[in-house]
């Protein structure tokens, strides 16, 4: 049987539906309270890391020419996720604000877990969806981002991160020796403005002003306002507070992932604002089996940058000769990133080895470390 015949089987797609296991855990936490409110982060981070250790790595590469109709069971989980997540978030807001059996610590823990759902899963699925050409999928991606109040991420990711990864223009490329907490603040304060400038520049190229109806920031604002309004209608000020808390947790997880994906990996400056082409070596990769199931192959990140609209079941993995490898999957590495001294101890030697291997001619890395190299030519 060919690999194409194998990939179309529902059983092959089933492990990528691991995310649905979070929903009954959220319901259990809301109803039972107590220690059960901690099960969501345990499921999303700890259990997947344990499974990675048991199952090892998956370095098989599917046929990238597999037709889209053979991927139905893979795509379906991303297509149904917005209604699943929407109902989870807002039913939890209604439940907590209309019952009194959960104390404040339990409520905080529960909505931290809801943020794990909307961040670890929702934003990752949104990323898969808004990279596609199908209008429905892109709308679903926008809806997922609006449910965590981070709609600008689509513009920043598509217009800035992909073309300018590894250069000073890309705020999502973490600098060598930059701790996560500093990076996170930089992303929160610089990301929205960066996305706005990129969209305005796009509009200007076709003779439109920044306030033109085609500016997607109008759509972003409307969707986010609708989400906040619904949270208020269901739970008042408490509902809005809980909604914003889960959104913050989700965004924190997104930026932890962004931090890990390109930490210290910069493209060589060729002079006069020109940079080398993006190559597989400019993304950290992890072929760990279980975390790639949960994160729908996001850890095959080099291939995503090579072929951004390639659907997740077809993403290719690269060996250590072509792309740098993480020692652990994203859930474990993002946990490590929260403790900068431990992160630097584990990752800085790997960055230095990467530099010696690929760029022996560069003797002064200070401008790369500080992000002081010239902006890419032609960038606003």
TrEMBL record:
<keyword id="KW-1133">Transmembrane helix</keyword>
<keyword id="KW-0472">Membrane</keyword>
<dbReference type="GO" id="GO:0005886">
    <property type="term" value="C:plasma membrane"/>
</dbReference>
<keyword id="KW-0503">Monooxygenase</keyword>
<feature type="transmembrane region" description="Helical">
    <location>
        <begin position="108"/>
        <end position="126"/>
    </location>
</feature>
<feature type="transmembrane region" description="Helical">
    <location>
        <begin position="76"/>
        <end position="96"/>
    </location>
</feature>
<feature type="transmembrane region" description="Helical">
    <location>
        <begin position="225"/>
        <end position="252"/>
    </location>
</feature>
<feature type="transmembrane region" description="Helical">
    <location>
        <begin position="38"/>
        <end position="55"/>
    </location>
</feature>
<keyword id="KW-0479">Metal-binding</keyword>
<keyword id="KW-0997">Cell inner membrane</keyword>
<dbReference type="Pfam" id="PF00487">
    <property type="entry name" value="FA_desaturase"/>
</dbReference>
<dbReference type="GO" id="GO:0046872">
    <property type="term" value="F:metal ion binding"/>
</dbReference>
<keyword id="KW-0560">Oxidoreductase</keyword>
<dbReference type="InterPro" id="IPR005804">
    <property type="entry name" value="FA_desaturase_dom"/>
</dbReference>
<dbReference type="InterPro" id="IPR033885">
    <property type="entry name" value="AlkB/XylM"/>
</dbReference>
<keyword id="KW-0408">Iron</keyword>
<feature type="transmembrane region" description="Helical">
    <location>
        <begin position="12"/>
        <end position="32"/>
    </location>
</feature>
<keyword id="KW-1003">Cell membrane</keyword>
<protein>
    <submittedName>
        <fullName>Alkane 1-monooxygenase</fullName>
    </submittedName>
</protein>
<keyword id="KW-0812">Transmembrane</keyword>
<comment type="similarity">
    <text>Belongs to the fatty acid desaturase type 1 family. AlkB subfamily.</text>
</comment>
<dbReference type="GO" id="GO:0006629">
    <property type="term" value="P:lipid metabolic process"/>
</dbReference>
<dbReference type="GO" id="GO:0004497">
    <property type="term" value="F:monooxygenase activity"/>
</dbReference>
<feature type="domain" description="Fatty acid desaturase">
    <location>
        <begin position="109"/>
        <end position="335"/>
    </location>
</feature>
